[in-house]
């Protein structure tokens, strides 16, 4: 018989309202450094300002405070990524010829947008086919969207809105976990829980959800597209939830 000692209970400890939310420091560039806060002497000041803004080790020697700033900055970075994705999908829905390209990708080139005729820049627009003039894109985003099962500009708009919502949530999370409920140092040093969260939660569930999307959405839609079915005749995924007759 093997007698094992009970595993210690992991407690998530946080400090409530550790740092007051204020915009006053925003009006003092370089407030995190005594040298930079004195103001510019040469043009090097502006570069040092940007270089040291997120060099948290130079702000303080308190490991808990550094850990909190890094943790909060991660949410800020995720917010920027979601904002970038939102802009990419919105521009694809609003300014591109994605639906026309999807209907005939062999004879119609993918175009990102139309250059506005302000002072002659419209010379950059070219005939990409299908009566559309614009800049032909070679980044492969149209192919990525087709492979993921996107068949309409409506889906691009919805994805853009969803990414914008997640950007706001990440921005809120970064503020909340630094100003309202900041974890203690012991929480950051709990390596086992951190690995469980990242490997099982983010990587595991993320891979599982994407695999489910590939099996139930992407592959069936691409099978129809490869067979020459008009993209407009393919029901959108959410329509199967609203109209049960499509399952028959």
UniProtKB/TrEMBL annotation:
One of its GO terms (cellular component) is chloroplast thylakoid membrane. It comes from the Eukaryota. The chain crosses the membrane at residues 70-90, 154-176. GO terms for biological process: photosynthesis. SUPFAM superfamilies: Photosystem I subunits PsaA/PsaB. Keywords: Membrane, Mitochondrion, Transmembrane, Transmembrane helix. This is Photosystem I P700 apoprotein A1. The lineage of its organism: Eukaryota, Viridiplantae, Streptophyta, Embryophyta, Tracheophyta.
């Amino acid at each position: 018989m093997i007698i094992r000692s009970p595993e210690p209970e992991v407690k998530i400890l946080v400090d409530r309202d550790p740092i007051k939310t204020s915009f006053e420091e925003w009006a003092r560039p370089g407030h995190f450094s005594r040298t930079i806060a004195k103001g510019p002497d040469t043009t090097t000041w502006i570069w040092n300002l940007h270089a040291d803004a997120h060099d948290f080790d130079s702000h303080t020697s308190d490991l808990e405070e550094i850990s909190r700033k890094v943790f909060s900055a991660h949410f800020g970075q995720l917010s920027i990524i979601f904002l970038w994705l939102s802009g990419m999908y919105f521009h694809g829905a609003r300014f591109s010829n994605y639906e026309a390209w999807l209907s005939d990708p062999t004879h119609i080139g993918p175009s990102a947008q139309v250059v506005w005729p302000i002072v002659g820049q419209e010379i950059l627009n070219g005939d990409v086919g299908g009566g559309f003039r614009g800049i032909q894109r070679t980044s492969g985003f149209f192919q990525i969207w087709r492979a993921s099962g996107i068949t309409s500009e409506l889906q691009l708009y919805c994805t853009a809105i969803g990414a914008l919502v997640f950007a706001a949530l990440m921005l809120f999370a970064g503020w909340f976990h630094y100003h309202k409920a900041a974890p203690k140092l012991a929480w950051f040093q709990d390596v086992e829980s951190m690995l469980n969260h990242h490997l099982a939660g983010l990587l595991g569930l993320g891979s599982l959800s994407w695999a489910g999307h590939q099996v139930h959405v992407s592959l069936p839609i691409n099978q129809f597209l490869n067979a020459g079915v008009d993209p407009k005749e393919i029901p959108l995924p959410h329509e199967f939830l609203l109209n049960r007759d499509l399952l028959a």
